[in-house]
């Protein structure tokens, strides 16, 4: 089972930027390159929300609130997916996770620890 370790979160003022990293382990580079991987976020008490997704062919999609501000990218040589977040808003505050997206469109049941992003106003 692919394992992900998220990092790069922190405390930032509104309008600032952060770059999150999602490093995959227990997977070969060849397999990693075939995966569809997404960033999700969760506020305590709420369901996880899909924020951005990148396919094996580097096609990307974003939740409306992230369009124009966030950029998802993938480095298959490093088995890592990134989320560049610009123009951050207080409502972006959440724990951010990454996961593989299955053919069903749902994430796997295996989640990492996530990385906390806090945006102050």
Concise summary:
With 121 residues, the protein is mainly beta.
Structure description:
This protein is mostly beta strands. It contains one helix and ten strands; from the N terminus they run βββαβββββββ. The chain has one helix spanning 29-32; strands spanning 3-7, 10-13, 18-25, 37-42, 49-54, 60-62, 70-75, 80-85, 94-100, 115-120. The mean pLDDT is 95.
C-alpha Rg (nearest Å):
13 Å
Structural class: mainly beta
Strand line-up of the largest beta sheet: 2-10-9-4-5-6
Question: What average pLDDT do the residues reach?
Answer: 95
The total count of strands amounts to 10
**Any idea what the shape is?**
globular
Major β-sheet annotation: 6 strands, mixed
Helix % is under 10%
Multimer state: single chain
End-to-end C-alpha gap: 39 Å
Pick out the low-confidence regions: none
**Beta-sheet strand percentage?**
over 45%
Count of alpha/pi helices: 1
Q: How would you spell out the order of helices and strands?
A: EEEHEEEEEEE
Which descriptors apply to this entry?
121 residues; mainly beta; 6-stranded mixed sheet; 4-stranded antiparallel sheet; globular
Indicate the topology.
Blueprint: E1 3-7, E2 10-13, E3 18-25, H1 29-32, E4 37-42, E5 49-54, E6 60-62, E7 70-75, E8 80-85, E9 94-100, E10 115-120
Parallel strand pairs: 2-10
Antiparallel strand pairs: 1-3, 3-8, 4-5, 4-9, 5-6, 7-8, 9-10
């Amino acid at each position: 089972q692919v394992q992900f370790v998220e990092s790069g979160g922190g405390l930032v003022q509104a309008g600032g930027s952060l770059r999150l990293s999602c490093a995959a382990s227990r997977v070969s580079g060849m397999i990693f390159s075939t995966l569809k991987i997404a960033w999700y976020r969760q506020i305590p008490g709420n369901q996880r929300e899909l924020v951005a997704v990148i396919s094996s062919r580097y096609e990307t999609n974003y939740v409306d609130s992230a369009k124009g501000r966030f950029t998802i990218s993938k480095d298959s040589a490093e088995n890592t997916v990134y989320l560049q977040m610009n123009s951050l808003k207080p409502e972006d505050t959440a724990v951010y996770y990454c996961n593989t997206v299955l053919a069903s469109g749902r994430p796997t049941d295996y989640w990492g620890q996530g990385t906390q992003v806090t945006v102050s106003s």
